[in-house]
Write a structure and sequence with these properties.
- The structure is a single chain.
- By secondary structure, the protein is of the alpha+beta class.
- It has one domain: Hypothetical protein apc22750. Chain B (Translation Initiation Factor IF3), CATH 3.30.110.
- Helices cover 29% and strands 37% of the residues.
- It contains three helices and five strands.
- The longest helix is centred in the first third of the chain and has 17 residues.
- The protein is elongated and about 50 Å long.
- The relative contact order is 0.23.
Length: 125
């Protein structure tokens, strides 16, 4: 029984990963080394400012979307955004928001948007 539950859980994770579409727009020609898988990418909503004490450069914009009926949730979208940020060498995601679009028939499209940043101290070496 536990084996079946584990297989079902893994199947849902795989489907959620495949059930999204991703768009990334580079704002710079610079490339940054990827962060390791344990790097904690912080996500800041549009309403939260980082302040002048923590200068940064915006390196790109990300958008990820998928339908709730395919197992997509705001958490899975945020997790995917963090993974892409790590691969792009970003330190954090700013101006993030998740939009919800309700469709006739009850399905819901979820869309995560944000901008990837690197702290300016990373560029000054």
């Amino acid at each position: 029984m536990q084996k079946n539950i584990l297989l079902l859980g893994l199947s849902v994770l795989v489907l959620a990963g495949c059930a999204t579409s991703t768009s990334y727009v580079n704002y710079t020609n610079q490339h940054f080394p990827p962060k390791d898988q344990f790097y904690a990418v912080k996500v800041y909503p549009a309403s939260q400012s980082l302040g002048a004490s923590n200068p940064y450069y915006v390196i790109g914009r990300i958008s990820i979307e998928g339908f709730a009926s395919n197992g997509v949730s705001p958490e899975t979208l945020t997790g995917q955004a963090k993974e892409i940020a790590r691969k792009r060498g970003a330190d954090a995601i700013i101006n993030s928001k998740t939009e919800v679009f309700r469709y006739y028939g009850g399905d819901v499209l979820l869309r995560f948007k944000g901008e990837l940043i690197v702290y300016s101290s990373v560029l000054i070496k």
